[in-house]
Design brief:
459 residues; mainly alpha; Growth Hormone, Chain: A; 19 helices; 0% strand; globular
Length: 459
């Protein structure tokens, strides 16, 4: 299909939703006030399809985080094994995330997302069969390792498309609200998914969790099918944008040329460069605790023989679900916030995350830890949402897919961080490993606030 045909189809689809295009309604919420402003993006039919599809997909990912970590620690009893599993997911993520950005800028994002969702259905179903002993087979560590490796590659190609499609559907006026709403849906699944997975492990079996994941990925595919194939709000939908795209197609000789071009853009734009560096620092230092949670629960909060392995799975799921309560609050705060002072807000969320993790590392009481997890959840969701808003707002649209690809490399880098922290946890214990790095994060955010005015003053 030509650019002109794609643009015509986009305009037709935009008209069918009752919108007027990029200069559509101001979306200030009308008489509904704060509530209307908070949920205004959900008025858009296409965004609702994306939203519900993302809920299904992220819910499955949250359930996987519990069941895969629980199985690895149950099979090996080793923090290093948890770190190795994280590394298996990280290596293909780092290799293929930049390629995913080029794909997002060149291919229909809807198609890319659907292909990844189809693979995830097959992956979850295969693990369900193995965990259930199908044909006498039994799930082993190497099955989980291979699954994590392949899934890391597939999802790293899909993630830039999944995130950058938001701006294609809602346009610049509603971008901050849409990202906040999208984050709130994801955190709703962070609230429900781990608890459900932990309950299913304790009452049913790990295989039942994988079957539920396969069903949710399938439902995500169905929602994605209803999205328009071409952007409704896009640089490509203007005459200048079409000419620019045609010019870039004439200049580029390969995917690698586009990849290098995107990397050069990130390197030369000081705002984008600093945003990515600061966010990379936050995730590498703070986020390894999520992968170490199974071992933390078993060695600190739920110690045998007083606490069984299945009960530890329930506790792990409950803690991660409680974290989702705070995450939901953080996402809603971002969705309803004004479009000013967002740089300071990002620094504040990062510092709050560090303080919460220091408290988490020294707590040995289950109920106190639950309260701390709500703070951690709010800080993590707020930091992630405001970071995505800033990176998409300040990126040139023609590079946005590739910039988001670099942004999503943080999920691979955090796995490398997890590997290092898991080795530290083997020698010094999980509390010292997590708490020490969290203290580093608090200091780093203070330095960022004091000496990085370019970030601090971003709106």
């Amino acid at each position: 299909m030509t650019v002109a045909e794609g643009n015509a189809q986009s305009k037709t689809e935009a008209g069918s939703t009752g919108r007027t295009g990029p200069t559509g309604p101001s979306g200030r919420g009308g008489p509904l006030g704060w509530l209307g402003r908070t949920f205004e993006s959900l008025r858009d039919a296409n965004f609702r399809q994306l939203y519900f599809g993302n809920i299904m997909q992220f819910g499955s990912m949250q359930m996987q985080l519990v069941v895969r970590g629980w199985l690895v620690f149950h099979l090996t009893g080793s923090f290093a094994a948890l770190g190795t599993m994280a590394l298996a997911n990280a290596i293909p993520g780092l290799l293929f995330s930049p390629v995913g950005g080029v794909v997002a800028d060149r291919a229909p994002k809807k198609t890319v997302i659907q292909m990844a969702q189809f693979y995830n259905v097959l992956n979850a179903a295969a693990l369900a069969l193995l965990a259930g002993g199908f044909l006498g087979l039994h799930l082993a560590f190497w099955h989980l390792f291979l699954s994590a490796f392949l899934q890391g590659g597939v999802n790293s190609i899909m993630m830039p498309s999944r995130q950058s499609i938001i701006s294609d559907l809602v346009g610049p006026e509603r971008l901050m609200n849409a990202i906040g709403i999208n984050a709130s849906g994801q955190t709703l699944m962070q609230l429900l998914g781990p608890g459900v997975a932990g309950f299913m492990i304790a009452v049913l079996s790990p295989a039942s969790v994988f079957w539920a994941m396969a069903l949710m990925y399938f439902l995500a595919m169905l929602f994605t099918m209803r999205l328009p194939k071409y952007p409704l709000y896009s640089f490509a939908n203007t005459a200048a944008g079409a000419a620019a795209r045609a010019g870039r197609r004439g200049r580029r000789g390969s995917t690698w040329h586009d990849l290098a071009d995107g990397m050069k853009y990130v390197a030369r734009d000081p705002t984008i460069r600093l945003l990515i560096v600061v966010n990379f620092l936050i995730v590498v230092v703070a986020m390894p605790y999520t992968m170490l949670m199974p071992g933390f629960v078993r060695t600190v909060l739920c110690v045998e023989p007083a606490c069984s392995a299945s009960h530890s799975g329930f506790i792990q799921g409950t803690l991660q679900s409680v974290q989702g309560i705070g995450a939901l609050v953080g996402a809603v705060v971002v969705a309803s916030a004004a479009s000013k002072g967002r740089g300071r807000m990002m620094i504040m969320w990062g510092a709050m995350l560090g303080v919460g993790l220091v408290a988490f590392s020294i707590s040995r009481n289950y109920w106190i830890t639950m309260a701390i997890m709500t703070v951690i959840g709010a800080a993590q969701a707020g930091r992630m949402a405001i970071g995505q808003v800033l990176i998409q707002t300040y990126s040139q649209e023609e590079y946005r897919g590739r910039v988001m690809a670099v942004w999503f490399m943080q999920f691979s880098l955090v796995q490398f961080g997890t590997f290092v922290v898991s080795i530290l946890a083997e020698f010094f214990g999980p509390q010292w490993a997590i708490g020490g790095l969290a203290a580093v994060l608090v200091v780093a955010m203070g330095l960022c606030a004091a000496f990085m005015p370019r970030i601090r003053n971003l709106d």
